[in-house]
Amino acid sequence: MLRNKPQATKTKSSARKVTKLTKKTVKRVSKRSQSTAATPISSIMDVNKLTITHNPKPKAKVPLKDLKFGHTFTDHMLEIDFTPEEGWGAPRIVPHGPLSLDPAASSLHYGLQCFEGMKAYLDDDKNIRLFRPEMNFKRMNSSADRLLLPRIDENGALKCLEKLLQTDKSWIPDQYGYSLYLRPTLISATPFLGVAPPTHAKFFVIASPVGPYYPTGFAPVKLLADPQYVRAWPGGTGNIKCGGNYALSIRPQRMAMERGYQQLLWLFGEDHQVTEVGTMNQFWFMKSKKTGQEELVTAPLDGTILPGVTRDSVIKLARSWGINVREEAYTIGEVLDAVNDGRMIEAFGTGTAAIVSPVKALGFDGKDYDIPIDAALNAGKLTNKIADTLQDIQFGKTPHEWSKVVM
Ligand code: COI
User: Fold this and answer.
1) Which ligand 1 atom is the nearest neighbour of the CA of 70?
2) Pick the CATH number of 221-394 from 3.30.565.10, 3.40.50.1370, 3.10.20.310, 3.20.10.10
3) What residue ranges do the domains of the chain occupy?
4) 72-107 burial, b for 16+ CB within 10 Å, e for fewer?
5) What are the contacts of 270-273 at 24+ separation with CB within 8 A?
6) pLDDT tens for residues 202-257?
7) CA of 242 to the centre of ligand 1 (A)
8) Which residue's CA lies nearest to atom 5 of ligand 1?
9) CA-based torsion, 305, 306, 311, 312: positive or negative
């Protein structure tokens, strides 16, 4: 059994400010965490201790054609609680339903939470498959580190997730292009209103059968670049998957939609560097101004960009096809230059939910710029090839180390 680092305890002055009930809780927590500092607490999410409570009222399945992203949930969910006394407790698969959480839980007040997005697929032999799941759990720990949430046990969490998938296997859509979207989430359950490191936490996974992310399916979108709003900045949280990064995007996203665009292209700095698009990483396939050679351009992982699993997969695939990938800071000016010079070949966003999202136009400073699209494909040729290749790997049609069968 591994040992967790001792949890940070509250200072007397910060504890003094809280209500009577919370004060007691804080005292109890700090006393216990001091007294158990030398006691092994579990950093293991032990699949051998997992219990399953089957849902007594399984729901009727929604026909695939009626699925809307993130609206339908399976019959079960996975829950694992962390306390400073015991560390990670016994994992539980329980009927999908409301969580029991103290209203003082600091995740509800200070956004002390992070999440992941991943998908499970059913292959032609009815095996359950996951796509590079270890990357999601590794990234969740990088988010946890930034927020001082307890680290998850990456192997244990995966094994428990696999049990959830076996329990809810009948919910995994049996059709190419459809999958079970998984939402592992890690929240502070610490009942304390002081702005302080969390001591108690909850890890849970809910699951939702999905088809295409956009109601329009694999259709090209129009982006709006407006420097008025900024997604992330150096030293911030742009490189982790915390809810706050998404909360701040909702108003600008509505503004973009009201102006006739589907997604917002995020800019940063006085020179308007392009960072991300909506909730995705952004790629441009263009001819280099310097060399005239084709290159795939995307922003670098400089601390402001989410290290997307799809982003990484696209970069690796493109390089394996001999494409020059340039992960470097670039500005909206460079993008518009490429469009104006006829050097822009195509553009797309990448993310777990949409996988690949082709781009057909870009609005900036009151003017719209067309991005080339192959009309027959409804996307650029490379965009289309990447989307097909990734899906064939995800559904196990093309054997690849990235796609793992759940045993
Ligand atoms: C993704 O596609 O990776 C996302 O994070 C989208 C999700 C927030 C709906």
Assistant:
1) 9
2) 3.20.10.10
3) 28-210, 221-394
4) bbbbbbbbbbbbbbebbbbbbbeebeeeeeeebbbb
5) 271/331, 271/333, 272/225, 272/227, 272/331, 272/332, 272/333, 273/299, 273/329, 273/330, 273/331, 273/332
6) 999 999 999 977 767 678 999 999 999 999 999 999 999 999 999 999 999 999 99
7) 11
8) 279
9) positive
Residue range 161-205, pLDDT digits in tens: 999 999 999 999 999 999 999 999 999 999 999 999 999 999 999
Q: What is the mean pLDDT of residues 131-145?
A: 98
> Ligand 1 centre and the CA of 58: distance in Å?
27
The amino acid at residue 398 is: T
**What are the backbone angles phi and psi of residue 333, rounded to the nearest 5°?**
-60, -40
Nearest atom, ligand 1, residue 310 CA: 3
* Ligand 1 atom, smallest distance to 354 CA: 2
Query: Helix, strand, or coil here: 368?
Result: strand
Specify the CATH class of 28-210 in words: alpha beta
Record the tokens describing residue 46, joined without a space.
């032990």
Specify the residue with its C-alpha closest to ligand 1, atom 8.
279
Judge whether 28-210 and 221-394 match in fold: no
**Ligand 1 binding pocket, CB closer than 6 Å:** 117, 246, 279-280, 351-354
Model pTM score: 0.89
- Residue 266 structure tokens: 């995020």
